[in-house]
Every structure is written in structure tokens, then in C-alpha cells.
Amino acid sequence: MLASVSSIAGITVAQRSDSNGVRYLSVPVGPGGTDGGGGDSSTNNAIFNGKASAITSGAPTSSTGKAAPPVAPVKNRVDPDVFLISKKPVTAPQVAAVKKATKADSLLQVDGARVKLDKGTTTAVGVDPSTFRNYAPDNTAQVDALWQRIAGGDVAVAHSVASALGVKLGDHTQLGKDVQRDARVGAFATTRLAGVGVVVDQARSADFGLTKGSALVIKLPKDADPVAAAAAAKDAVPGSDADALRFVSTAAGSGVAGGPTVTGGVPVLGRGWTLPLRMGTFTLSQRFGVRNGRDANGHPGIDLAAPLETPIYAASAGNVLYWGPAQGFGNWIVLQHPGGVQTVYGHMKYQDLLIPPDAQVKTGQNIARVGSEGASTGPHLHFEVHIDDQRVDPIAFLNAQGVNEIR
To answer: Whole-model pTM above 0.85?
Structure first.
């Protein structure tokens, strides 16, 4: 499904060229609200600016200032298929039941919890870096310094979450479930795990209120259906959430073009994807990479001008990766979708975020209302698409998924 869009996993970021190679014929840019310029800050650009910005400089050290403990090299790395998280520890019998129900080739149990990060909300996992790196995207897994930062007590923050908060490498922020504690941002790293915006060493799990052994990262046999396996894993651990981490073209519920998948939602227009605003309610006021009519290689998404409180819909099924305040954008919702894809929705009022911060959403579900918060010249939706750590043209991406109503 993603063949038309390059996918770059891990912590390195491909630079955008001066032209995205897409001709726009159907929808001319019209009047209406756009970003005011402050949302595309130098801090945000640095987060998505390649390998040099991915890890703090200098030799990795622990939180006590000593040299960071060694981290084992990558060995037998796998791409996980399912991520399960519970509010309680997953017991040994439940782990066995998950293995049996999913026929898992391998399974890694880690700590996890929904946490507050600064003023926003995301999910954090506490891991042993030496083992967890074998379940991370390839380019992330290979970077020894990243895992040494985590082993030394720093935290790794997903690119889109760091962008929302405007944090820089080496910054200190506040992290925790019930009580927030100081956390130094040592790296930007995107894991593809549903809703996970922060990775910490398991030695610090208790500091941040993470629940021990509450999450499972699951690798399935070749050709297994991750959607069916996620459902089976969820049944094996009552009260948990389980999500497929990759696309399958035959997945039940992936969305058939022509009909809504949720009451009150908008129709699915492509292969499990739709537009974030209903056709006829918006004007395309700013394109990707274009600011104020010039190709400045600086606008990380598209702007869709619409009246205040126009309903905003999830472009595809997914999990909330980040929810809350965003630098220059008022408030953001970031949704994590299978295959390392994230969608970003910005400029809403806090009270117009209509889903909880730990929500699982369906394609076309009403998640928010259009606002004009932050750096904005008028009411509009700022919409981005990220693949792992790369910002891509939302229109080209949607076209590649069969959503051709906007070009």
C-alpha cells in the first residue's frame, strides 16, 4: 500500500528535495487560513533534519555522569507485527496464552504506561536496550549511541512528539504517569509501536510510573495476519489494547471505499484512508513545502481552510501517539497507523479535542474540530503525514492510498 511513498525507518531522515514531483491539477490553492509561520520553527526543522540531530553530542554517560553501561550489538533483529499494552502486569499464564493464540515466533515483554510528557500525553515503554533494539526499525536498531543514551538514563522521544513540544536534544522535560519527574532528552527515535512516544531504560520505569511487564511486542510467523493476531492477543489479556503494526491488504476492517466505518464519520475514499475534512467543507489554502506562494521547502504539511468547529476526521484507523499542546499549533493530535505512518492534526482548541488521549480510532471517526490556535492567520486544519521520521507530502500520500478527491 505504501509503494508510492518512500519509507525510511529509524532515526535518520531523508531531506526533502525542492520539488515533490507531483503535479496539482484538480484543486487550486484558494483563500483562507494558513499557518502564520511560527509553527515551522527552527527547533521543529532540526528534529527532522537528519542523522546529526538524532542523538546528543559527546560520549554517552549515565544520569550520574559516569560512562553509560555497554549495550549488546544487534542480533537477529525482527520487525514486530503486534503490540499489546495493559494497565496491569501481563502474567506468565497470559503470556503463554498470547503465544498460543497468536502462534508467535518470538515475544518481548516490556514495561509501559500512558504518561504525561511536559503538558502533553503519550505512551512510554521501559526496556532493556540490548534486547529491545532487536525489535526496533532497522536504522534505529543499528545506532549504538542511541541505545547507550537510553541505558545511561536519557529518554528517546518520537520525532512527531518532540516536534509538538519543541524540545531540543539535551533539553530537560517532565515525564511520568502520576508524578512527573525530570527527564533528559538524549535522542529522537520513532519505534512504530502503536501510541509509543517515549522509550526509557527499564531501570527508570518505576521513576516514571510505568507498569512492570504490562506490554508485549510480538513477532508472528511469515504470512500471518497481524489484525487477526492482535484480536487473539487482546482476548488472551482481558482489558488490554492490541494493535497490528503493519498493513495487510486483506485485513478485515481495513476499510472498503464508499462507506463510513463509524457512526457519524465520513466515507472511506481509498484503501482504508479518507480525507481529514469532508469534501465541500474546506479550501486547500497551503500546500506541502510551499509558504506564502513560494516553494520555500518549509511547510511540513498542507493547510485546509474551513469554518471554526468544522468536524475533523481520522484519515485512517490508528492509535493516539500524542495528544495536547503543540508549539505554534495550539493543540495537536498525532495518530499512529500501521506501517510506521503517522498523521498530524493541528490548530485545535483544547476543548475541541474530541477523543481521549489513549484512544483507538477508526477511519473517518470525528476526532476534533477546526480551530485557529497558535501561529495561524485564520481557521484551518494543519495536516501532516510522517513515515517513521520523514515528513512526506500528504496529498501525494493520500493519492497513493487511492484517495484521489484532492490532488
So the answer is: no
